[in-house]
Amino acid sequence: MSDIKYTPTPIEPPPSYETTTSIPPKSPVTKGPLQRAPLPLNLPILSSLQGRRVILASASPRRRQLLAQIGFSNLAIIPSTVPEAFSKTLSPFEYVLQTATQKAMTVYSSQINSPDGEPALVIAADTVVVSPRGQILEKPRSEDDHIAMLKGLRDSGSHKVYTAVVVMAPLSSARDPGYALESTVEETTVRFGRDISDDLILSYVKTREGADKAGGYGILPIMRSKTDSVILAMLISGCEQIQGMGAILVDRIEGSFDNAVGLPLRPTLALIEKVLRDDEDLVDEFAEVEEEE
User: Fold this and answer.
1) Distance of alpha carbon 60 from alpha carbon 73, whole angstroms
2) Active site residue 145
3) Which strand (E) or helix (H) includes residue 192?
4) Using an 8 Å Cβ cutoff, are 200 and 158 in contact?
5) Is residue 6 scored above 90 in pLDDT?
């Protein structure tokens, strides 16, 4: 066996441990014939939003990709710039819900009188990873912290992932406060493989994929079609085309997979239907009151 070690030449610097925003992954180079993408969902609620301004209050490429799967391909991406400063003494449920609500309210308020037009819908989300002891895990502060965080998740068995989704839409009526707001919090249990070696954790940390993610790792649905051996080979070779390499750490997921990715699609779609239906119900109620007067 050759003793020569391959060191890939980085195309661009990896994300910093000090960064607070996700860096969108590069688009993979397509080889061979292009596969036709599936048609979008043909739902009345989605059709009613065509050509209207829908805002995702998040810079997460994973959330953008998930929403594109159900037909939201022309989202306006406007992340909230307000610091997430809620106390970690809150329960994970309360913490993630308050953070997502703050994101939605901040972006909605900043865009309600925008020259680009009033938003028809604002979607915000926040995801946290919670240790078995109930500790809300931040983004890793350094490489050593990152390694310790992942070892802790491996050694402690299962942990929880909570995602809060908040959806807002302006009301057509003059009813205070002028908008409809609906929210939900979803919970998923994730178990790391107990046989994950320290070398594999170190190799994953060196990719810096999880450096800007709470809990220190990221997964995407694309990884479900990859075998561990293929993923490990990509890690060792420094391949930059794979997304969601953190899936190699995961042994089992109980609950919604897309919730662990960062946006539970079915609950999100249900919230969209509810806020738009709330508006229609209030318009009908307002019209009935006017007729009675």
Assistant:
1) 14
2) no
3) strand 179-192
4) no
5) no
